[in-house]
Amino acid sequence: MLLLSDVYSLGEGECKMKKPTILCAIALTALLIIISVAGCRQQPQPVTPPPASTPLVTAKPAAVSSEEDWITKPEYFAPSADTIVIGQVTEGLPPIEKDNSIYRDWVFEVESYVVNPLPDTSLKVRIHEQSGMMPVKGVHLAEGEHLLLFLNAQDDHFTMLGGLMGAKYIIDDGRVRFGMYGYSPWEPLDEAIARIKAVAETWADEELTPEREAEIIGIALNYPGISEYLTGRNYETKVGPYTRGIEPGVIRYMVSIYLREKPEIRQDLRVVVNATQQKVEDIIFNVTEHELTEEEENQTLQMALADETVQEVIGGRGYKLAPDIIRDGWQEIQEGKVSFYIFPKVELWLQPTISDILEIYVDLKQKKVVKIFTESHLSPMPLQSSDTDRDFTLTIQIPKTDYRVGETAEAIMTLSYTGDGSVELTAPGSQYFNLTIRDGQGNIVYQWERQEYGPPPPSLDWFKETINPGQSITKSLEFSLPQAGTFYIEGRNFGGWDYGQVLADYPDGHGYGLYIDTPFMVITAR
Q1: Whole-angstrom Cα distance, residue 437 to residue 450?
Q2: Residue 48 DSSP class
Q3: Which of 26, 60, 67, 267 shows the smallest number of beta carbons within 10 Å?
Q4: What pTM was estimated for this model as a whole?
């Protein structure tokens, strides 16, 4: 899993630049300004085994570092808002048709400005209500609502930060809470405003100029071990605010380093830089290489399952083998220096809970297991889960966690794009989304694409469309639980090997298939 910084989008696909530049899209990825840095071509450096002093079994960090639902904190949006305002929705104006979508402007009477006051006593806030023939299931406004809003200025109106999630906070009796998808606990309005002002003041004079970008990148690359690893490799960097780390008095950036030595090899470093204290706070390493031969796969699996420590961790539990045995990697910090390791990996899903995962790394030359990670593949948010692949983030939202057997419910699926130029998407049957529900043993009890299209391979027409930076695609998928019990729901891209894969093609000729799956959310049926 990548450590994600956070993304939120404008409902109209428009973007208002601000200092620092924050691009908004739903769910959960960082806004990043591209800087390309190319290394020279040399021989790849050899991979050395981890030192013997390193613990063999380690708990893998959660996919999301914070245990709190960060988007419900109003200060999260403070750095990127053109204005922050308290007031009341008084009127919805006639609908506006634009680009095969329908929008509506709502009149918002201003009671007070929290940050960046304007002379206006009322504002027009535009909401995306319909895309094509489909209603947009996201943030909406209604007459009489008393709200705290985070807004960006457009030509003749304002848009709400947060995209479909919506930076909409309900005010009642001196209290405030997040107004979407299950809400959040009430908190005193004056305490929230104090934090908002403190964060806004922290970022007020911060501008991500080329000089500032170079400074932030320098802090990341100068961390002991990083520059050594990058020497002789081709890579590019992206820099953006680390919005998950928002707090008064501290400015954090995420430096994302992408290594692209071969099209089929993906290596990413994510470095969290505390710009206030001029130091690196966190490093996450991700690598995937699909280059194992069948013989190497068999050897990796045999050595993993024969290892005594692996057998001790499994104990008496059953398990399922993940579909692919691939090369993967991890990083370790010892004595202030980071080291990166890449080895073939076997992944086991332990029963009875499929979210309990073992990642076993094998050194084929030394013929032994060199690392075992235990991991929980559960979303920290009960009603939302996201994951990212390069420029795309997939998000699934569900209305609740408890259902009746046979009850029909809807999950909102969103695919958000945070790249720099337009990309052509190709989708089988014009479908981008799928959701899967498994029981505790990993058995599929519901799969949307099978329910919709039947056993593969159906004959599906290929649909092409262009997606621009900051835009997202959203659809609601119905699901139901056929039996009582505890289950695990995840969002996925539609297709794969069964129906054909969603493809992203860039103007320079490169492209890749989208196959993102989100961490599980736990649901029950009775």
Answers
A1: 12
A2: P
A3: 67
A4: 0.56
Give the separation between CA 281 and CA 227, rounded to whole angstroms: 16
* Burial tier of 514 (Cβ tally within 10 Å: 0-12, 13-18, 19+): buried
Contact between 338 and 50 (Cβ < 8 Å): no
Q: Within 250-307, where are the H helices?
A: 294-306
For residue 520, the 8-state DSSP code is B
Sign of CA dihedral 142, 146, 151, 154: positive
Region 157-186: what's the mean pLDDT?
Answer: 81
Q: Token pair of 365, please?
A: 């030359």
Q: Using CA atoms in the order 373, 351, 68, 59, what is the torsion angle rounded to 10 degrees?
A: -20
Contact 492, 516 (CB under 8 A): yes
Helix (H) or strand (E) holding 313: helix 308-314
Give the whole-angstrom CA distance, residue 523 versus residue 445.
13
Identify whether the C-beta of residue 356 lies closer than 8 Å to the C-beta of residue 288.
Answer: no
Q: Which of 163, 144, 155, 164 is nearest to 92 (CA)?
A: 144
Alpha carbon distance 178, 186 (integer Å):
8
For 450-486, b/e burial (b = at least 16 CB within 10 A) is eeebeeeeeebeeeeeebebbbbbbbebebbbeeeee
Residue 290 binned pLDDT confidence (cut-offs 50, 70, 90): low
